[in-house]
Amino acid sequence: MRALVISGGGSKGAFAGGVAQYLTEELKRDYDLFIGTSTGSLLISHMALHKAEKVKRVYTSVNQSSIFSSRPFLIHKKHGYENISINHFNVLLNFLKGRKTFGDSFNLKKLLKKTFSKEEFEELKNGPKDIIVTVSNLSLNEVEYKSIRDYEYEDFIEWIWISCNYTPFMSLVKKNGCEYADGGLGSMVPIEEAIRRGATEVDAIILKTEVTYFNRLPSKNVFSLITNLFAFMLDRIERQNIQIGKFAASHHDAILNFYYTPTVLTTNSLIFDEEKMTEWWESGFEFAKHMNKELDQIEP
């Protein structure tokens, strides 16, 4: 059984889209299992449908308004770098509404419904491939994996949305009596789950560099400090997931193929820039092409 795993990574998901498009369209890899976390969960359904171009158009045209119904930060560009600061008005308004988070991402849920139709959902649910998204159950302190086979359209759309909600900057969702948030808070790279479900070969797209190339810039304000803290935490979770995945693969004789980003794409994946995301998609496609050519030359 072959599985495609796509990690979390916010706007960097555009790079993963390019890699996945090359693997599915150019190499014609036929995956039985697709597992995504956060931004990865947005990609996997369309990749399973062989509709990479469709999801590419979505990824390369989104902006902050496409994601946030209430954006909790402002973006400042200085000396070519983008910094964020708190949007006091929106954050205060959110708290006055009784929300538990700085911002909300209801626009993303609307976008999901526009781009992933009920007909496409039924085609996947009734087909042979399994599509799984990762969510974090904060109430039960557990990571949960939601398969398309177990839910109807409205519920599965909501699970995809929940998987992407980078709390506390995006919505916290109460469902089935529990509070749920971004799957990356528990499992950024769910390789172990793919192997547990029977995968014997896993292509894992990881939205970070294999080694650390930089020291994070000093925090400019309390909001950038919070994003830096979360980035640090998620990076540690990601490294742990990869180590556990390698351990699981060695004990089940599974093959792992890793696709890391070759360079640092951004230091803040909450910023959605159409131009940059278009570049990242193309660079992901070219990177996968180059990497597989090198592998072909190595093989006898």
Automatic annotation (TrEMBL):
Active site: 38, 182
Coiled-coil region: none
SUPFAM superfamilies documented for this protein: FabD/lysophospholipase-like
Sorted UniProt keywords: Hydrolase, Lipid degradation, Lipid metabolism
Superkingdom per UniProt: Bacteria
PROSITE patterns linked to this entry: PNPLA
Motif (GXSXG): 36-40
Residue positions of motif GXGXXG: 8-13
Domain (PNPLA): residue spans on this chain: 4-195
Motif DGA/G per UniProt: ranges: 182-184
Protein name according to UniProt: Patatin-like phospholipase family protein
Native source species: Gramella jeungdoensis
